[in-house]
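Workshop exercise sheet. Pairs work together: one partner reads the sequence aloud, the other fills in the structure field after running the prediction. Swap roles for the next sheet.
Pair: D.N. / O.F.
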Amino acid sequence: MKEYGTGSCSSRILAGTTSLHTKLESKLAKFKGVEDALVFSTGFMTMAGTVSGIMGKGDVILSDEFNHASIVDGCRLSGADVRIYKHNDMGSLEEHLAGRPASANKLIVTDGVFSMRGTVANLPRIVDLAQKHNAVLMVDDAHGTGVLGKTGRGTPEHFGLDGRIDIVCGTFSKSLGTIGGFAGSSKEIISYLRLNSRPFLFTAAPPPSVVATVIACLEVIEEEPELLVKLHDNTRIVKEGLSDAGFSLEDTVTPIIPVLIGDDRITFKVAAALEDEGIMVNPVVAPAVPPGNSLIRISVMASFSTDQLVEAIRKIKLVGQRMGIV
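Structure field:
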């Protein structure tokens, strides 16, 4: 704050870009294995501004039905022809692609990790289909960054696809501990977004304190790999404990663990009962999930001790029994 102040009071394109912002963009590009990166003030603006910034009337967007609302709104803002394919259904995606003219500008956009269910996109097959049908591929890796891959670089690293995703986006509000987001791609695409993404152009720059936080968090991910190991060990403990207790879980390799319930009223009652027990979970109902698919979302962290996890599982089981879920 002594060096950069509390904020520039300006958009990035005018007086809002400091040496900290350019340092972070360079660090993000290296971390994600792309040529260049662009930092936005929020994660929502990142996805909406990237999709609407590069696509327009006459273009075609193929979007997974469970994509985040920021992607959905970006598709709407773009004015493009939007086709929704069934969640992670590669047959559905290829059917939509095959029905589009070969000359059309096509964008496939998907979450890397889907935020409510923790499922992982079938990136290897999506990459193949994108190449086959001459489409650009954009991955929102908000929940994969810092979580998946040998070094925490995200869903592309998890599948060994570094360098094969055209546009990689993410948010700073998950593993990076603050607010904001980024898009990473070729220098050409990032340069285009700098002057064509309205959410980037017409909002104030992220404050230096936020930018410095992200830089520090990236350094933690790179310099303390034991945290990633602990995160996945903790995830395994919780999944095995809840599964053994009889809960219905989504099949996922991520620290997002959804407990499937189905009834909105019971979902909220379970969340309230767990809060009374000192356990915070997210009750998730429509429109975040399809109607009738309500769930409790448990998010596991590396900072939890084994004793804490065992106690949490015990309490979740007791509440589940009391509510008639197990």
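Discussion prompt: The chain has a mean pLDDT of 96. What would you look at next?
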